[in-house]
């Protein structure tokens, strides 16, 4: 007996591997500083937690419609209109178990076997695996550091073939922290509009943007909106990662297909989380206050981490959004520490964890084999302590 070919094609997550090692070390009593987090280190705001309690008291413990409650979908439509200048009807919204589930449903709905999906590199490591699970073929476009790892219109145009079905845009980007300006999005949109392809626009980090407001590529034109599947969710904006609520907005045909797929797999998101999400989106007073505090805190940590990385002599791309910074470790390849040789970013990350008790994410799985990712979803104290340890570690490698 054997597992399916589909299952064998899926790569294990390097993120989870490093995180598991760091957690085990902490459980063994070792003081580890973790820059591996892929979630805000803030608790869910009290007003949302209270809504969860209220939902239980209201008896919201039954099935809901597969694609989400009418109440939550109406709130999502209002959010998309107010924040993104995008008009959708509730029938075009599908609420799923997190943004990753929304992406899975989207690819299952639009891809035929061997359809090509263009993925700018570096990329969130689940994109190619999700495409492969839907029998599609990931096509990677290697972006350049001098462009802040943002795909250019020329690079996108060159990657499109008669087999291209979709283009994935992650804005702001994980792992680079890159943010596309409206002008940059418009130039990409003009290329896409000239071809019969979908855009899967992952906007999960849209509110964590430190220099200018995020824009959705779907707002470029009615034609592009019809071809765009907007992916978002509650996890990063409201620090609700464990509540597992994501959503997609798409044309009627795609939304109906995604809902149908979900109806035969997971069915609806749990009712209490949906009610809490409705309150999160509807209570603008509390929501905006929480978000502004979180964004300001992350911005200060971003500045501190960049300052400390600069002092350590490490090369990095300045992040404009999300809560990650990508740091080059290419110069350390071939270096030795305690008899061990750094051959790649994974070696660097494992040795850093073992010898300096700092957890970072190697970016091989993100399409950036010469880089590590550091999350600044950590306290300023931990950032200082962790960068002290990294500075000492790299001095040993350089000597």
Question: What features would you describe in this structure?
Answer:
This protein is of the alpha/beta class and 399 residues long. Helices cover 44% and strands 15% of the residues. The strands form four sheets. The protein has a seven-stranded mixed beta sheet, with helices on both faces. Strands 9-14-13 form a three-stranded antiparallel beta sheet. Helix 8 links the parallel strand 5 and strand 6 (198-202). Helix 4 runs parallel beside helix 11 (271-282) and helix 5 (99-110) packs across helix 10. The mean pLDDT is 95.
List the SSEs and their pairings.
Layout (H helix, E strand, L loop, with lengths): L4 H5 L4 H14 L5 E2 L11 H12 L12 H15 L8 E4 L2 H12 L5 E6 L4 H8 L3 E6 L10 H7 L4 E7 L11 H12 L4 E5 L19 H6 E6 L12 E4 L2 H12 L7 H12 L1 H28 L12 E5 L7 E2 L2 E2 L3 H12 L1 E2 L1 E2 L8 E5 L4 H19 L1
Parallel strand pairs: 1-12, 3-4, 3-5, 5-6, 6-7
Antiparallel strand pairs: 2-8, 7-8, 9-14, 10-11, 13-14
Helix pairs in contact: 3-11, 4-11, 5-6, 5-10, 12-14
């Amino acid at each position: 007996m054997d597992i399916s070919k589909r299952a064998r094609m899926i790569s294990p997550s390097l993120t989870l591997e490093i995180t598991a090692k760091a957690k085990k070390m902490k459980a063994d009593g070792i003081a580890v500083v973790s820059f591996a987090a892929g979630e805000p280190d803030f608790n869910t705001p009290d007003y949302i937690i209270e809504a969860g309690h209220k939902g239980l008291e209201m008896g919201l413990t039954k099935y809901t419609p597969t694609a989400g409650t009418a109440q939550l979908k109406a709130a999502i439509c209002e959010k998309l209109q107010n924040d993104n200048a995008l008009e959708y009807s509730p029938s075009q919204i599908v609420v799923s178990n997190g943004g990753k589930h929304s992406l899975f449903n989207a690819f299952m709905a639009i891809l035929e076997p061997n359809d090509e999906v263009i993925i700018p590199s570096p990329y969130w490591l689940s994109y190619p695996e999700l495409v492969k699970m839907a029998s599609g073929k990931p096509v990677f476009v290697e972006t350049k550091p001098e462009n802040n790892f943002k795909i250019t219109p020329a690079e996108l145009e060159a990657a499109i073939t008669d087999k291209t079905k979709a283009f994935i845009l992650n804005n702001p980007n994980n792992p680079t922290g890159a943010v596309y300006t409206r002008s940059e999005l418009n130039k990409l949109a003009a290329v896409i509009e000239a071809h019969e392809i979908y855009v899967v626009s992952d906007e999960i980090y849209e509110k964590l943007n430190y220099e200018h407001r995020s824009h959705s590529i779907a707002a470029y034109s009615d034609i592009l909106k019809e071809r765009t599947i907007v992916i978002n969710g509650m996890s990063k904006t409201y620090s609700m990662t464990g509540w597992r609520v994501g959503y997609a907005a798409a044309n009627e045909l795609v939304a109906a297909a995604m809902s149908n797929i979900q109806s035969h797999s997971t069915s609806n998101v749990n009712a209490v989380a949906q009610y809490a999400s409705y309150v999160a989106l509807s209570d603008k007073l509390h929501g905006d206050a929480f978000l502004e505090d979180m964004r300001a805190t992350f911005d200060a940590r971003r500045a501190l981490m960049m300052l400390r990385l600069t002092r350590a002599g490490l090369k990095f791309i300045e992040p404009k959004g999300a809560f990650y910074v990508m740091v080059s470790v290419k110069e350390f390849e071939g270096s030795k520490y305690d008899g061990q040789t750094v051959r790649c970013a994974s070696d660097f990350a494992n040795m850093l964890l073992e010898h300096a008790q700092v957890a970072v994410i190697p970016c091989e799985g993100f399409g950036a084999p010469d880089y590590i990712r550091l999350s600044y979803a950590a306290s300023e104290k931990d950032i200082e302590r962790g960068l002290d340890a990294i500075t000492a570690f790299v001095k040993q490698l350089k000597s």
